[in-house]
Amino acid sequence: xxxxxxxxxxxxxxxxxxxxxxxxxxxxxxxxxxxxxxxxxxxxxxxxxxxxxxxxxxxxxxxxxxxxxxxxxxxxxxxxxxxxxxxxxxxxxxxxxxxxxxxxxxxxxxxxxx
Length: 114
Prior knowledge:
By secondary structure, the protein is mainly alpha-helical. The protein has two domains: 3-73; 75-114. It has helices at 3-13, 21-73, and strands spanning 80-83, 90-93, 104-106. Strands 2-1-3 form a three-stranded antiparallel sheet, with no helix packed on it. The chain is rod-shaped. It starts with a helix and ends in an 8-residue tail after the last strand.
């Protein structure tokens, strides 16, 4: 069956309608429906992309904040010497974070030179 046959069949069903008017209306309606479905799919994809971007932004922010929090509590691993000003005791420590409060910190060996 060719397009001309469909037009003749439609014309005979709808008496008084000439040519392919009904067929054209039907075809246009289907095309509009497909276009609407395509637009809906594109809109859903846009919503999905926005949600994924938001999720990626949230995860990146959380990672950045957790890294910042870790660096605030972490301590550089470098040997430090410290002197207790009250007693004059000089000791070596594995990092500056473990030196007792009030002790003078030095990043060079002051215990053997003094």
